[in-house]
Amino acid sequence: MSVRIVKWSTKTRSEVVNAFLRRPAFDEGAEEAAAKVLDDIKTKGNKAVVESVKRFQGASLPASRFQVTHSELLAARRGVDREFADAVREAHNRIAKFARAGIKKNWRMSSPRGGVLGEQFVPYDRVGCYIPGGAAPLASTALMTVTLAKVAGVPEVVACTPCAADGSVDKFLLHALEVAGATEVYKVGGIQGVGLMALGTRTVKKVQKIVGPGGAYVTAAKRQMYGQVALDLVAGPSEIAVLADAKANPAFIAADLLSQAEHGSGHEKALLVTSSMEVAKRVQEELDEQAVLLSRREAVAKVMKKGMLLVVVPNLDQGIELCNLFAAEHLELMVREPKMWLRKVRCAGAVFVGEWSPEATGDFVAGPSHVLPTGGAAAMFSGLTVDDFLRRSSFIAFTRADLKDTVKVIEAFARVEGLDAHARSATIRFDDK
Description:
about 425 residues; alpha/beta; Rossmann fold; 3 domains; six-stranded parallel β-sheet; five-stranded parallel β-sheet; about 15% strand; globular
């Protein structure tokens, strides 16, 4: 099943490429389903969550068993192998170190007449992290979300993830959540998981913000809860773009494209943009050879058929333009002098610079969160950072002299906008007593 090769340029654009670029971030069917489930949770609370867990997760789970118990966390800790436990600690340390380095600090500046202006950053009180667990238990996502919240100083970090039909949650995922610092873990996934966190019930307190990736139904539910809670970004099916020159290694490129095709939803996207037809053909061959070796080859085959494209461009300048139009969740620069090309990237969730930075480093261990915008949303959104768990407040501490200097400005705007009480709130301070 050879992946298609097409040509593209800024002057002669391909309809095949245009169609590939069009990938809606939201699914209409998922939007309708989410609206119904969320409305049920608003009116029926825990009862609606129980019904949805039964319907969508196949688990008979009473409200009293929503939350993962301490004994379950302890069993998970004892049940994971040493190699995985060491990997979790290493990844957690790297993610936390990156988050601490990037966290915003309070700052201040002097006003012209002796006052102080500035901003302060305060963590949320309670946040929710959605952790996918359907096609695969994403233990790495537990680290890439909860760790950031804890570094930010959030005292209550709730995690929701789907359980199996018997009510169990994957031990590797539970261990990652414990190491990351989740304070509550619920066995509720999908739309109902988002609704549980966003709306709250008699037994579960609502959160102030929800972060984390998910499929079409989770994305739809998050979008409809905007305003009830704050949100991070649009994070749906995985995608990757690779910009490659004639010297790039075709085997590396094929392996990296396939790494995103195996997630299992069938809606993943993988794009190669190269200035070399020879590289494109060799990548095409490598894809066929490597795909049959993968354990998830059926899922991969779906993406290779509908969600993968190899594009040959006249030169790398036009290639980077196409990559910016695609606005990929992950963008790899498999070119000579990749750091130079990094400066030309305008739209990408995360950029992987050079052949020794495969996308998997970002998924599991490098440090930046792998919760990134998808579906072209990287043109508008940025990936999850520690700052997403902080509330920003500006502050103004004027002196009498500062206010006197600006009172005429206040009066002018108040007059134009018809807000005389605004003006009076400033001028009254200078009335003769």
